[in-house]
Amino acid sequence: MNLRALLNALTGRQDSKDVARERLRMVLVHDRATVSPEFLEKIKEEMISVISKYMEIDERHTVINLHHTDGTAVLEANLAIKSIRRAP
Question: Within 13 Å and on the Cβ side, how many CA atoms surround 39?
């Protein structure tokens, strides 16, 4: 660790390269998480297809969202479950 890095660590300041790296990471996360409504609809259909093996899902009240929180893409699924299929 060089003297500048040590001073920055002690004072809580970040090196400009660290700030630039964090900004680039944020941009990449945003670019990767930006998807079309058609893509989200496809994800919704596939999730319902898989979960329907175990539960009866009310598709009219199912909502899938993709948003960003603290630099991370979050896929949020709210599924309206009518009933649970019991294993034989």
Answer: 7
- Name the token pair of 39: 């893509």
Other C-beta atoms lying within 10 Å of the C-beta of residue 16? 9
Average pLDDT, rounded, for the chain: 76
Length of the chain as a residue count:
88
**How confident is the model over 7-22, as pLDDT tens digits?**
666 666 666 766 676 6
Give Cβ neighbours of residue 10 (< 8 Å, ≥ 6 apart). Answer: none
Could you tell me the sign of the dihedral formed by the alpha carbons of 17, 18, 23, 27, in that order? positive
Verdict on whether the full-model pTM lies above 0.70: no
Q: Which amino acid is at 57?
A: I
SS3 58: strand
